[in-house]
Amino acid sequence: MSEKRRGRNSREAMRARRSKPSIINPAPPGSVGGQYKPLNDHQIKQIYDTALRMLAELGMGDSPQELTDQASKCGATINELGRLCFSQSMVEDIIDQACKSFVLHGRDPKHSFEVGGDRVYFGTGGAAVQTLDLDSHVYRPSTLEDLYDFTRLVDTLPNVSWFTRCCVPTDVPDAFELDVNTAYCLMRGTQKPVGTSFINADHVDPIVDMFDLVAGGEGEFAKKPFCKTHISPVISPMRFATEAVDVALACIRRGIPINNVTAAMSGATSPAPIDGMLAASLAETLAGLVMVNVFSPGFPMIFSNWPFVIDLRTGAFSGGGGEISLLNAASAQISNFIGLPSGVAACMSDAKAVDAQMGMEKALSSLACGLSGANMVYESSGMMASLLGASFEAFIVDNEMLSHVNRMIRGIEVSEETLAFESMKNVITGAGHFIAEKQTLEAMERDYFYPTLGDRLEPRTWAEAGAWDIWKKANVEAKQLLENQAPEYILASIDVKIRKSFDIKLE
Questions:
Q1: Which pLDDT score, from 0 to 100, does residue 30 have?
Q2: Would you tell me how many other CB atoms lie within 10 Å of the CB of residue 497?
Q3: What residue ranges in 202-320 does DSSP mark as E strands?
Q4: Half-sphere exposure (CA, 13 Å, Cβ side) for 499?
């Protein structure tokens, strides 16, 4: 057989191999992060020490009496300004006894994963009041149907490891009905871990009762909680939010893991210098850790320090760019230095369209936060328009982007075999190329991710195929997935019971 024919056969064999679904994911969620370190050890220590000084000397304002009393039993004091202060030794004692890792459960165990350590997972967040319509490509008010559609779409996306409600249904004006229907949509649309929030503390018990129904009976949810709550118990600069503290205490009583979020704004509610902002937001997130642990030491909590940026020319929130990427990566590095389960925010593009700006901003922040080693990267898919909007197509594009990001986080494995000395020897003494090498076929599946949305055609072929851009491709894929994805994750008999107890508006 001629060399030319042998080469053609090898290429055909490779094409046939590529046409089969790979049994190996070269870019899996949960790879080990920590390669990107924007801060050195001395800088981390300076920021950490300043945060502890802020808590000890400046303290926290507007502390609810219940928190003041409980914290005082653990060593907190009131300064001359009437603010609740935590000494360095008190804070560090609480850090020592705080939860260092816990399992975030999916209702299907295959979706469960451990939060903490050095593994990186990407998921959602946000509270968008607008949705980019799939047909008109114009933003409109978000609805309950949108929330359900986003939930069942995410159920199909392998790189989105959990789903926190990404939009607020504006067609459900009553606060209690909003919380109930949000929780219902999350349970109906996915078996991945989910996250929600509670407007009032008295909403917690009835909604957990609903969780119990789905989990199999009274008290079953708390055994393997599949939903966490997003709470911002601190209002920057450095004061407690009474209603949020009340919600946190209600969640502790019912065993709902807490995502303790601090979202200070640079130059507005937090210092403008990068290091000063990191110190202030760290102090505030530590205050939230203290709040949880004086009531329930070791309670599962994600230490979510999300430093946000505003455009100091206009005061507008800036969800994309180098500064917010740098800040959240540094925040993850500091949280990991302390040893707590870390959460940061990324992919909050300011773009309104599924365009180059969106891709640039999302890739910058997701890669920075992933490589920094954040355990949970929130807002990492679907969010647009500086968190004011959510997009079905963005979810599709972001899912593929996160494969590239996960591949970079995974890094390079080095072994005697894959260093390929013997393979090189075979090639230079034989065919003169690597196409037919067994090692090439193995590496093709193990080491390389092949996009389906990203275009690698040459220009003429691309034009003849319709010259589709990524927005159009993602639009078609989102519609197809939504048309074919109709999960029934709540048993019919349980659904009847829920609807008898609550005003469920989703048909």
A1: 94
A2: 14
A3: 227-231, 234-235, 239-240, 258-262, 301-305, 309-310, 317-318
A4: 13
For residue 101, list its beta bridge partners. Answer: 116
Q: Which of 495, 401, 506, 490 is nearest to 454 (CA)?
A: 401
Q: Inform me whether the pLDDT recorded for 21 exceeds 80.
A: no
By C-alpha distance, which of 449, 343, 330, 387 is closest to 27?
A: 449
> Which amino acid, 69?
D
Instruction: Residue 244: name the closest of 225, 255, 260, 228 by CA.
Output: 260
What is 95-410's CATH superfamily? Trimethylamine methyltransferase-like (3.20.20.480)
Tokens 């800088």, located at residue: 43
* DSSP, res 237: T
Average model confidence (pLDDT) across the chain: 95
Record the pTM: 0.93
State the Cα–Cα distance between residues 39 and 336, nearest whole angstrom. Answer: 12
Kindly state the tokens that stand for 242.
Answer: 């009474």
Return the DSSP state at 386: G
Q: How buried is residue 25: exposed, middle or buried, by Cβ count under 10 Å (0-12/13-18/19+)?
A: middle
Find, among 215, 223, 290, the residue nearest to 260 by Cα: 290
Measured from the Cβ of residue 28, the count of other Cβ atoms closer than 10 Å reads 14
- Which stretches within 74-203 are classed as H helix? 88-97, 144-154, 175-189
Q: How many whole angstroms separate alpha carbon 489 and alpha carbon 107?
A: 9
Is 292:94 a contact under the CB 8 Å cutoff?
A: no
Distance CA 371, CA 383 (A): 21
* Least confident window among 16-25, 236-245, 275-284: 16-25
The residue ranges of every structural domain in the chain are: 3-30+412-447, 95-410
Of the candidates 224, 504, 139, the one whose C-alpha atom is nearest the C-alpha of residue 496 is: 504
Q: What per-residue string of b and e applies to 459-476 under the rule 16 or more CB within 10 Å gives b? A: eeeeeeeeeeebbebbbe
Q: Reduce the DSSP state of residue 201 to 3 states and report it.
A: helix
Query: Which residue stretches of 123-170 are H helix?
Result: 144-154
pLDDT digits (tens, 9 = 90+) for 257-315: 999 999 999 999 999 999 999 999 999 999 999 999 999 999 999 999 999 999 999 99
| Separation of alpha carbons 421 and 431, rounded Å | 16
